């Protein structure tokens, strides 16, 4: 039944939150419930993926077991945890209503996530790999062409087509990365045909789980709860930061500050674009915000002597580690946070230790999983994004180094407990100085950066253009003031926020290619939004003290309009970028449903729209077809045709005839016939040099699927016909061909299968002038039957083969070629 697992997950969240509310408070109970269910689903999916059993019934049984365990643990914790002390403020009714309305509006704007299936882009690979996992239960696809399992296509020819070179026996690339299949997919083991997607796999696992619960058309639905989790965590984070300030005016407005932050995120046009697109930043952002929210709630609980501090901190660390399972750059975030936690040692020692331990252990496991499953991507991403030397250790060495580094961090944390007091006091100052310097450099990069169409444009310039100047200015100033005033509990998170802003400021070359800005926008938008909302609270509290409450309300209304109206003006307008934006899974299904599973699929080089790069990955991963993702050699096509393997060609449909020719520079043209035609829609931004795209155009177009005829034609005029060729019509005893060109001086060869019954076979040509019997030529042992053509040969004639046999007549192929 569709949606059963989703319903069980929501019921589990409600049950756990209800059981723990009177022990932890509403906010903490909701955070525990959401984090517990999120982590439980993620862990179950990854474990089943590693076992190769991510299929309907194992998934249902596994999730049912972990949901029941979560409810049981909540019931046990409810009996063991003391109730919260009286007087702990919960959400006022007005704040709760505002939270519900903003969540409803934000989710409503994001209810139609992109069904992106095109290959050759990261977001398309994510969806296709998720569909592949849902179909097969495993991560690694197996290419039958590479493995040599397709009839008539030798493995050596395919390996040569993919330029797979033999690796030295001692090379760390053996069985890890032996070539590249297409963008985003690497050849892990060429002779076994095993491929590996080149990225982290938690989000495709969520897509697979959603498909198993809702069907293929709703596989990208997890983007909606990812944003909902981000929004709730953002609200809770801003509210908690406001509650922990010394200003009573800010604390009194804590709920309102959380709502302002949530409104800023929900109505931001860049966030709206990212949150509906199938990129890992959506899941990683939810992990980042949930971890920060739970960690600060844990510190507050320990400081106020409320129960559940270590539980909240542990869940926060695990949520952050889940981000490392999602995106490679998140490992860098984890390193920054872990180092900051080592240096900033606060009075909430138990929750800090629990957070640090969960963070280090979880991130180490994420790196191990990345090395095991995406070894090539892990080290190439580190070199590309962080400019570190590209390393190529053996997977076992990389795993051992990761575990050793994690253990060293845990031991270092134990050793730093005995630091002298002067050194303990010096570390927060160093962190505060590093964070402040990062913000200064970021502001300088923004001021000195290029214009809107400059190739050295920064990500912060994109934020300025699409979010308005006020939230960016408030965010930078608010983050700077928070760094100056922060205590040891909040300082590690603020240092991480400063590092996120710095990397966004230094990233250049995005132009209007927002695709390359998404890595940073998804993290920096919520960071600046929370900082701006907290600064707004401080401004209003100061205005109220200096003037009165009415003046503070008027100032707040004016600032909110200046903040929210510019993004609202841009909200209906698409954030365009010059790559493909969306497509329809139903349209791709209509293309590939005409291709049998045991066939060979090729892509036409002449077709517009990069057909091979866009559709090879969906053909293999989502539809399970044997797709050749490189230009085919003539010998590959010939071998498949000779062996009887159906060969299909996908191309743009610009030729009106149902029978066509596919030209090739290396050999004569292949004859084809059209199997299906249609129109493929793929919206994309128009390309405008030096300016912003103003509209979307259809980057797809007409397509036609052609089947290559079982015939081989040479540039010399010679040809070979096979059974099932469109040029051949079978008769009761023999066959007749269509009128075909007959080269001068050629002869007719008919190859019969070994062990065929004895037959009396004759051949003739039918021309406009009449029928002419062909003279038989001597036949070599185990050779073909031979006939000579009349001289002079007719320009075109139909060949007739008649056979009288003791049994059924069978033949392998008919050739017309020059006599030796």
UniProtKB/TrEMBL annotation:
List all membrane-crossing ranges. 28-49, 61-78, 90-112, 221-242, 254-274, 315-343, 355-375, 395-412, 433-451, 463-484, 491-510, 516-540, 547-565
**Keyword terms of this UniProt record:** Membrane, Transmembrane, Transmembrane helix
Would I find Transmembrane helix among this entry's keywords? yes
Q: What is this protein called?
A: Uncharacterized protein
Q: Which organism is it from?
A: Nannocystis exedens
């Amino acid at each position: 039944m569709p949606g059963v697992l989703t319903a069980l997950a929501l019921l589990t969240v409600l049950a756990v939150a209800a059981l723990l509310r009177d022990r932890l408070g509403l906010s903490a109970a909701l955070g525990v419930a959401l984090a517990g269910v999120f982590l439980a689903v993620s862990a179950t999916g990854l474990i089943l993926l590693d076992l190769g059993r991510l299929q309907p019934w194992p998934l249902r049984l596994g999730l049912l077991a972990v949901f029941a365990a979560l409810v049981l643990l909540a019931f046990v914790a409810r009996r063991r945890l003391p109730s919260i002390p009286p007087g702990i403020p919960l959400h006022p009714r007005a704040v709760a209503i505002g939270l519900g309305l903003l969540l409803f509006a934000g989710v409503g704007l994001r209810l139609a996530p992109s069904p992106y299936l095109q290959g050759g882009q990261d977001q398309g690979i994510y969806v296709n790999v998720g569909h592949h996992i849902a179909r097969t239960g495993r991560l690694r696809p197996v290419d039958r062409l590479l493995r040599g399992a397709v009839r008539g296509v030798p493995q050596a020819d395919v390996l040569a087509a993919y330029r797979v070179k033999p690796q030295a026996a001692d090379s760390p690339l053996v069985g890890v990365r032996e070539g590249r299949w297409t963008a985003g997919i690497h050849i892990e083991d060429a002779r076994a045909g095993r491929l590996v997607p080149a990225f982290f796999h938690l989000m495709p696992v969520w897509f697979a789980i959603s498909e198993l619960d809702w069907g293929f058309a709703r596989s990208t639905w997890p983007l909606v709860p990812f944003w909902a989790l981000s929004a709730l965590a953002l609200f809770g984070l801003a509210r908690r930061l406001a509650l922990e300030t010394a200003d009573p005016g800010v604390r009194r407005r804590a709920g309102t500050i959380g709502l302002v932050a949530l409104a800023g995120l929900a109505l931001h046009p860049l966030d709206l674009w990212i949150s509906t697109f199938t990129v890992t930043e959506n899941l990683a952002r939810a992990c980042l915000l949930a971890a920060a929210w739970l960690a600060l709630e844990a510190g507050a609980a320990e400081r106020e002597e409320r129960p559940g501090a270590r539980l909240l901190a542990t869940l926060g660390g695990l949520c952050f580690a889940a981000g490392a399972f999602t995106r490679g750059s998140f490992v860098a975030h984890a390193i920054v946070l872990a180092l900051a936690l080592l240096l900033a040692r606060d009075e909430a020692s138990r929750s800090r230790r629990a957070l640090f331990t969960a963070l280090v252990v979880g991130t180490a496991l994420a790196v191990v999983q990345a090395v095991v499953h995406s070894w090539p991507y892990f080290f190439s991403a580190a070199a590309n994004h962080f400019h570190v030397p590209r390393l190529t250790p053996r997977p076992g060495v990389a795993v051992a180094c990761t575990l050793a580094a994690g253990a060293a961090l845990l031991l270092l944390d134990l050793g730093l407990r005995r630091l002298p007091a002067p050194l303990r006091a010096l570390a927060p100052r160093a962190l505060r100085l590093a964070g402040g310097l990062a913000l200064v450099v970021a502001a300088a990069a923004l001021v000195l950066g290029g214009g809107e169409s400059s190739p050295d444009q920064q990500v912060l310039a994109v934020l300025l253009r699409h979010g308005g100047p006020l939230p960016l200015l408030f965010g930078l100033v608010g983050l700077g003031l928070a760094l100056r005033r922060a205590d040891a509990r909040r300082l590690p998170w603020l240092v991480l926020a400063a590092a996120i802003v710095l990397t966004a400021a230094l990233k250049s070359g995005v132009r209007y290619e927002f695709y390359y800005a998404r890595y940073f926008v998804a993290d920096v938008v919520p960071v600046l939004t929370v900082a701006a909302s907290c600064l707004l609270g401080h401004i209003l509290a100061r205005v109220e003290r200096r003037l009165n409450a009415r003046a503070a309300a008027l100032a707040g209304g004016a600032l909110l309009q200046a903040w929210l109206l510019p993004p609202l003006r841009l909200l209906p307008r698409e954030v365009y970028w010059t790559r493909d934006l969306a497509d329809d899974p139903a349209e791709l299904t209509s293309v590939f449903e005409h291709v049998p599973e045991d066939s060979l699929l090729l892509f036409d080089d002449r077709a517009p729209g990069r057909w091979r790069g866009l559709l090879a990955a969906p053909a293999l991963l989502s539809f399970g077809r044997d797709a050749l993702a490189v230009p085919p050699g003539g010998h590959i096509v010939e071998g498949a045709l000779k062996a009887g393997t159906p060969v299909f060609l996908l191309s743009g449909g610009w030729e009106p005839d149902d029978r066509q020719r596919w030209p090739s520079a290396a050999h004569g043209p292949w004859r084809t016939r059209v199997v299906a035609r249609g129109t493929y829609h793929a919206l994309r931004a128009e390309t405008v040099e030096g300016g912003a795209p103003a509209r979307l155009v259809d980057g797809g177009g007409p397509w036609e699927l052609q089947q290559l005829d079982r015939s081989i034609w040479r540039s010399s005029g010679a040809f070979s016909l096979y059974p099932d060729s469109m040029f051949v019509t079978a008769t009761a005893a023999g066959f007749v061909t269509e009128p075909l060109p007959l080269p001068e001086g050629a002869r007719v060869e008919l190859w019969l299968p070994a062990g065929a019954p004895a037959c009396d076979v004759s051949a003739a040509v039918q021309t406009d002038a009449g029928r002419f019997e062909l003279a038989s030529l001597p036949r070599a042992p185990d050779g073909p039957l031979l006939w000579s053509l009349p001289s002079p040969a007719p320009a075109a004639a139909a060949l007739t083969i008649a056979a009288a046999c003791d049994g059924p007549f069978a033949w392998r192929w008919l050739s017309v070629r020059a006599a030796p």
